[in-house]
Amino acid sequence: MFVRVVNVLLLICALSWGAEIRKTRNDVRNFPDGFLFGTATASYQVEGAWDEDGKSENIWDHMTHTQPCIIKDCSNGDVADDSYHQYERDVEMMRELGLDFYRFSLSWSRILPSGFADKVNEAGVAYYNNLINEMLKYNIEPMITLYHWDLPQRLQDLGGWANPHIVDWFSDYARVAYEQFGDRVKYWITINEPREVCYQVAHAKAYHIYDEEFKPVNGGVIGITLSANWYEPETDSESDTTATEERIQFEWGQYAHPIYSVSGDFPPVMKEKIAAKSEEQGYPRSRLPEFTPEEIESMVPWGFYKLLTKIRESYNNPPVFITENGFSTTGGLEDDNRIRYYRGYLSAMLDAMEEGSDVRAYAAWSLMDNFEWMQGYTERFGLYEVDYESPERTRTPRKSAFVYKEILRTRTLDPNYEPDTDVMTIDEGH
């Protein structure tokens, strides 16, 4: 049987927003055969080695060096978790947890220091080859994000994502990544949480390069990560219901609709609202960019998108990969709130799956503490705690790591499971 896979990759931030809260079941539940579990990180947040081995400055390097206290704790990712040097320990943690896959991103400026595909940095490629090969040695599938917010500063100086030429710059970079790693990497994400039209067009071009040139040889799937909140109306009134749907369409429908709907265009309500507002403000035409017929054609893959149940009901139930889902604390190894969070979200995911949603994989954010964008190191998302005072950036498993390991080991969600050890080991076969 030939299945045309829609690789929907999704960050779920909230299950509901409003009056009605769905109760979490308290019984032991099983995950289906073949369901994949993983964790996720991003290059700038964990790699460090910001200027080593030929890597050039990216936009986060530039911002945190020129405006350090724009970050809550005035920190930066210069060293971060030092995964550039500690990748073997990272893979060891993946083995301890029993992961099926690990999602990480490539640093564009580490692979192409000029931002352009004129010269490939072999040292940067070697780092990712070492990481990928170490993972595959232990049957852990790499899932690569091409772009997770760390644009080369040299391209930002040319206008960055506001420059239409970036569509070609990005697709050239994507081709280099496919050529270097595509023989071993079967899961690809073009862009993490797009926010501008150029992102969507760049995704489309990179998608088709892989789909047409590399997939026939290497196999694999490719998609895009979309951030999604779920909202509930405050009341059952028509105005609240309409407002809720409009909020959904403006927040994430504007990115999902062009890619996963039949029309290949922005949501109708968004087009109508922006056209009316543009006319009111005196513009001769809508300020919402229009896709060309060629761009619309290139951004329609083989399925539809929606947030779990809404995916199933509105967009023909494509396979869904949940690529980030996590809970932050301020630190410490006893993270019961994180455990409750994961159990609640996994239970809700199983509810949707039992009703028919085709969810294939789940990645916890994050494998370990990391540099959290505007919060620096004041927020901790990791299953493993990182000691940032230690030269080795020592990683220590939290209680949640033991709970997540048990879920993966048994392929069950047991709300009453309590770890009986604080010593993490690698199970046979990992």
Jot down its keywords.
8-stranded parallel beta barrel; 14% strand; 12 strands; TIM Barrel; 39% helix; two-stranded antiparallel ribbon; 430 residues; disordered N terminus; alpha/beta; globular
Task: Report on the architecture of this protein.
This protein is 39% helix and 14% strand. With 430 residues, it is an alpha/beta fold. The chain has one domain (7-233, 303-413): Glycosidases (TIM Barrel). It has an eight-stranded parallel beta barrel with strand order 1-7-6-5-4-3-9-8, surrounded by five helices. The longest helix has 23 residues, at 238-260.
Roughly what fraction of the amino acids lie in strands? Answer: 5-15%
Multimerization status: single chain
The first-level CATH class is given as: Alpha Beta
Strand order of the largest sheet: 1-7-6-5-4-3-9-8
As for the CATH topology, it is TIM Barrel
On the 0 to 100 scale, the average pLDDT is 84
Q: What is the share of helical residues?
A: 25-40%
Q: Looking at this structure, what is the CATH superfamily?
A: Glycosidases
- Rounded to an integer in angstroms, the radius of gyration calculated over CA atoms is 21 Å
Count, helices:
14
Number of domains: 1
Low-pLDDT regions: 1-22, 295-306
